[in-house]
Design brief:
Length: 115
């Protein structure tokens, strides 16, 4: 199967997980394509000042691959800078948030799989 860029579903979400501004998702896979093994594989874009709020992963785990911009990650209560080329892994039972603290868009690939 091939999906061209214009066929991918785009979804803006306001205040994701209690965060600030809008997170714009381009879904790379849809729910039925996970075969009950996950729930998200998407390109996420956060404009400067936007964030995904602090949340805990129960029954799933998440990976971010940052490919553009920079921001601040809250990794289980510890703030850390992130930039293009960094990988973030949040395991089952762990918590995180991310905020675009840079001057350009923060773009990442997000993958959520079930344990």
């Amino acid at each position: 199967m091939l999906k061209h860029n214009n066929e991918l579903r785009r979804e803006p979400i306001e205040s994701l997980r209690g965060g600030k501004g809008v997170t714009e998702f381009t879904h790379l896979l849809e729910k039925e394509q996970f075969h009950d093994k996950g729930r998200l594989f998407a390109h996420a874009r956060l404009v400067p000042g936007a964030s995904i709020g602090y949340h805990k992963h129960e029954g799933d785990f998440e990976t971010y691959y940052v490919f553009k911009g920079e921001g601040t990650l809250n990794d289980n209560g510890k703030e850390r800078p992130v930039k293009a080329g960094d990988l973030v892994f949040t395991n089952v039972g762990e918590s995180h948030s991310i905020e675009n603290t840079g001057t350009e868009d923060l773009e990442l690939i997000a993958l959520i799989l079930f344990e």
